[in-house]
Amino acid sequence: MKKYTVKTIMDYISGNDIEEFTLEELEDDMDFMKNVINYTNDKNMVSMCSERIQNDFEFIKFILYKFSYDLEFTCAIADKFLEGIDKEHEEDRYEIAIIMCQLIKGKKEDYMKYHIIASLAFLWELEFVKECQQQYSSPSNKVGMGFIFITEDDSNSQIMVEYFAKKFIEHILAYHEINFEDLLHKRFSRKEDLEQVKINTFLINFLLCYDIALANYAKAHLEILDSLKEAIQYTISNWEKFMEKKERDLYNLLFEKVDRYMKVHPECAFLEDDLLYTIGYELGVLDKIQKYDGLWDVDATGSSINKSEMSLQDRIHYHAIKQLVTNILNGTYIEDDEYIAESIPFQKNIITVDFTSAQKKG
After folding, report:
1. What Cα–Cα distance (Å) separates residue 177 from each residue in 127, 135, 146, 174, 222?
2. Among residues 173, 169, 175, 177, which one has the least CA distance to residue 150?
3. Residue 155: band (very low, low, confident or very high) from pLDDT cuts 50, 70, 90
4. Mean residue pLDDT across the chain
5. pTM
6. More confident residue, 105 or 113
7. 168 close to 211: Cβ distance less than 8 angstroms
8. Burial class of 6 by CB neighbour count within 10 A (0 to 12, 13 to 18, 19+)
């Protein structure tokens, strides 16, 4: 590596004669031109570099980071490089696309173009992981979901491994159909409990459940947890709205299933509202039913049904609907519209005994 003096660099920038080197020699030297660009902070100096340097992968990365504030310029540099790259250097193509995704972060329409290339790289990497996993005859805790093969792939740069780690977290959530906000609400009963948790420790332990290698990588590269940290902060800020929606959905399900039951059993003597509000009063949820139903302003005592006057068939229906409501509120409801309806013994199948007549005969 040639070492250039500050005077040589300044003479080049100023356009002074340089006796020790020719212009062609200097402009074809990556280290020298990097020094020139660092001194001047002038992106126009890129065009002064030789064609070889302008197509050099490491130089392109340097320029992208150096002028990351100028997205129009960096996009032009990246596009020119991507258009001219051959199939033998696909890894370089993927890495440039990943860098551009990091720099743009959705701020520009061009993001999707780079995102597609970067996502394709991850899909290819997942195929590579599957091939490696097939070499193992039985599941292994060490292998987990396969991130270890990504870290051991020598063709992956640190930039690519970090990007793949972030995508691998998304892959875990998608593969196991995990709604992270739902998971947090199941894990923490109160917002205050989530606010006090040690986030890094919690997230690393979460990853340990699926992939040890990924969890270990996260310990040394906490930045790959940023998306999950953002999800936690969103969950905290959205806590009350989430709980209200969850409760509203629960009571809408309750109304839907009770309505379904009443339609399946038209012989039921009760009005749906009377029945629902009476059961709600007994279960201590009348205020919630009033809040989400909004159809009937009922007295606080809540009962408009005289249970002592119920026939046997009415009692059967009443208790069946009460059990249905209880199961829904407890989260033990079986998702089958016909489940309870088919299990109800009808009045026509019941043998009626006249005890009064029997006593007279005795």
Report:
1. 20, 26, 18, 5, 24
2. 169
3. confident
4. 86
5. 0.78
6. 113
7. yes
8. exposed
